[in-house]
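Working notes for the structural subgroup meeting. M.R. asked for a predicted model of this chain before we commit to crystallization trials. I am recording the input and output together here so anyone reviewing the notebook later can reproduce the run.

Input as submitted:
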Amino acid sequence: MTASSLTIATRESPLALCQAHYVKQRLKQIHPELTVTLLGMTTRGDTMQDVSLLTAGGKSLFVKELEDALLTGRADIAVHSMKDVPMILPAGLCLNVMCEREDPRDVFISNRFSELEQLPAHAIVGTSSLRRQSQLLARYPDVEARELRGNVNTRLSRLDNGDYDAIVLAAAGLIRLNLADRIRYFLSLEQSLPAAGQGVLGIECRDNDRETQRLIAPLNHLASYICVKAERAMCKRLGGGCHVPVAAYAEKKNGQVYLRGLVATPDGKLVLRASRSDAWEQAEILGESVANDLLQQGAEDVLKKIGR
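Returned structure, recorded in token form:
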């Protein structure tokens, strides 16, 4: 039987709704007869704004309620920013579709300075990410990295209110929200290696729902899917979730997958890096190999001290 309707579980932040509407529009273009509705939800991650992600339990707080909606049948699919998705999915769910990657880089935003090099000593830089914090402090140890939570507009408002001299965000979210004009400077991959899955939207569904899988399959972008598989395999091998200073970015290069990985201490005083290339078919093995290289350099001790 062919499904006539689909329900998308989504967080209710402006960015999450924008991403869900994007998937809805793509599905309607491919299946004009399909009725697609959104099920907006508030997650624990959205309500716990005064607690750091590390203390609260990581970015899995942003997906649990959506996954519960899938498992109980209230929704057919959930749309996630892949950088927020835990490395191990709940039993009964799968994530076989990833949309084409938006710009994966981090960006510098400030009303006073045009790039990181201009920041004076003790400048306050806002970020919710230990990954960004560690790489920032590794290059600019004299600045102060301060916790910054909330949706994109909330973070920009706090910058505009003078709480921070600058903030660092993901380019993808600003671009999707038509806020790219706030970007002062794109950080290079050497300055700030992205989180695994950054810039990619993933579509999760029940692993026994073959009809839904058929409907969403055309949205999968193979290159993005393969690259994210490599990135997530690296993070899974390290045992590092989204709330520790672990970075992973893969790209197509010379017909192969080229993966860069990083593990750092939160203060940026120790930064471990590794990189390798392999065939497309070996993406997950590649991720594990890069993780092993990092482990040989001492990554396990770094992550244990943070409490991965």
